[in-house]
Amino acid sequence: MTNKAKNVGCVVVGYGAYMGKYHCEWIRNTEGLSLLAVCDVNPDRTEAAKKDFPRVKTYNDLDEMLKEQDIDLVTIVTPHNTHAQLALQCLRAGRNVIVEKPMCVTTAEATAMIEEAKKRNLMLSVFHQRRYDGDFLAMKEAIDKGLIGNVFHLEVFAGGYNHPGYVWRSDKKTSGGAIYDNGAHFIDQILNLVPERVVGVAGFFHKLVWKDVTNEDQVEAVIRFESGAIADLQISSVACIDKARWRILGTKGGILDERGEQYFKAITMIEGIPAEMKIKYKDRDWPAYYRNIADHLLRGAELKVKPEEARRVIAVMEAAEKSSRRGRIEKVPV
């Protein structure tokens, strides 16, 4: 772990279109963290980093950067299929690691990363910042307080009818597939709303329209929990008709969250009478992720996003694809 007598020296690996810059800003604005350097294989991107953050060092070679003795923490903001390799390289160099979501592409990669971090007594975490989204925070609070009773059914949707684009996120070999982007956020949120063991996943993946990219056009994962609760996640680029982002049913009520509003509708049963209300979103607080990292490394606070939790997300996505391919329900190994 980090020397608790000093600030945490941080570097960002990957300075692409925008997320690398955001991570640098979050680190720089977090008490206890110091932004030291940016590394990117593309010299154009490190030139951009120099303009944005004139005081930081820049590197185009990760091995060279890892020779710096003041580096305590590496944040990896690169394409999904590189996360495991780069994280293992940094862990083996004795550095704590954060990786952008999704954690990696396969459960086996996630396990290798976790085992390496444990072996070296280092922190490993995944940037599941959407746990700090205002809509999710408000829904979780309402559910945790028992407003709608025991949750037994969730429907989650993201998408529309549009070309998925031509960047690496639309390339299945690089990204992992259509479920690995927004789907990773939603599955992490689902697993936090229903904190139970997953007993099976059914997947339904379609490739129908956009033949010039390799990601699927629509992916669906139906997750069954130990209590019998069901979560149905759909991510689509061929959905001509929209639907609510969240529809959640409980034994005492329900939640409907439409996109474009700053509140969700909730119904709760009071002595058999339905009472309808609008619940305002909380403020979004993505920097809270890095505040927890600083508290964990410097003061021993509990890590909010544990690597085992992020591995469950990968396992569900991997099981959904296997289920679609094999035509049967798949168990989740972790």
Outline:
The protein is α/β, with parallel strands linked by helices.
Walkthrough of the structure:
This protein is α/β, with parallel strands linked by helices. Helices cover 32% and strands 26% of the residues. It is built from 10 helices and 14 strands. Helix 1 links the parallel strand 1 and strand 2. The longest helix is centred in the C-terminal third of the chain and has 20 residues. The mean pLDDT is 96.
Order of helices and strands: EHEHEHEHEHEHEHHEEEEEEEHH
**In angstroms, what separates the terminal alpha carbons?**
26 Å
Determine the mean pLDDT: 96
Number of structural domains = 2
CATH topology of the largest domain: Dihydrodipicolinate Reductase, domain 2
Key words describing this protein structure:
334 residues, alpha/beta, Rossmann fold, Dihydrodipicolinate Reductase, domain 2, 2 domains, eight-stranded mixed β-sheet, 10 helices, globular
Give the topology, please.
Elements lengths: L7 E6 L5 H10 L4 E7 L3 H10 L4 E3 L2 H4 L7 E4 L6 H10 L3 E5 L6 H13 L4 E4 L6 H11 L6 E9 L12 H4 L6 H12 L4 E9 L11 E8 L4 E7 L9 E5 L2 E5 L5 E8 L2 E8 L7 H12 L7 H20 L8
Parallel strand pairs: 1-2, 1-4, 2-3, 4-5, 5-6, 7-10
Antiparallel strand pairs: 7-11, 8-9, 9-10, 11-12, 12-13, 13-14
Helix pairs in contact: 4-5, 5-10, 8-10
